[in-house]
Specification:
It is a single chain. This protein is α+β, with helices and mostly antiparallel strands. It has helices spanning 46-58, 113-127, 133-138, 144-152, and strands spanning 8-16, 19-25, 32-33, 36-38, 62-74, 84-94, 105-111. It has a domain at 8-111: Nucleoside Triphosphate Pyrophosphohydrolase (Alpha-Beta Complex), CATH 3.90.79. The protein is built from 4 helices and 7 strands, in the order ββββαβββααα. The radius of gyration is 15 Å and the shape is globular.
Length: 158
């Protein structure tokens, strides 16, 4: 039986030299996104979940968390009833090298605004039906919810 969705998610914006840390997910929802995850493990609050997910996905220990924004968004996950989430997005300082989780990520790296914009444009083509599901899984753009967040944060303009 699928795990029940708690509808609470965190996302972590980690910056280095003006570039944003993005991972490519191995599992649904496919696409590139900053490290993110659910809050439901061991009664985690949002900040504790943010620290746990950052360590789990890319091996980074969060130093300072600053809430950048929060809102409810339609954003599917693979959990039962996982159609929407209340998100808290944090700006985070981290001071070590990336050690990506190979079970959860295909790759992880630092992306410029231009590179993120190209990923956002690919997402728009996918959402318009111009890219097949098979093509998307081989070479995705930004996860749809993260396209929205990065536009809202003015990191990409679509």
């Amino acid at each position: 039986m699928a795990k029940q969705c708690d509808h609470k998610c965190v996302g972590m914006l980690v910056w280095k030299n003006g570039k944003l840390l993005l991972i490519e997910r191995k599992k649904f929802p496919f696409g590139f996104a900053p490290p993110a995850g659910h809050c439901d493990e061991d009664g985690d609050d949002f900040e504790k979940a943010a620290k746990r997910e950052l360590l789990e996905e890319v091996g980074l220990e969060a130093q300072n968390l600053e809430l950048a924004l929060e809102a409810r968004k339609e954003s599917p996950c693979r959990r039962e009833n996982g159609t929407w989430h209340y998100w808290k997005i944090y700006q985070i300082e981290a001071d070590s090298d990336i050690k990506r989780n190979e079970d959860e990520t295909k790759q992880a790296g630092w992306y410029s605004k231009d590179e993120a914009l190209q990923l956002a444009k690919r997402t728009e083509k996918y959402m318009a039906g111009e890219i097949s599901e098979e093509e998307w899984q081989k070479s995705p753009g930004l996860e749809a919810v993260w396209r929205d967040w990065l536009i809202q944060l003015k990191f990409v303009n679509s």
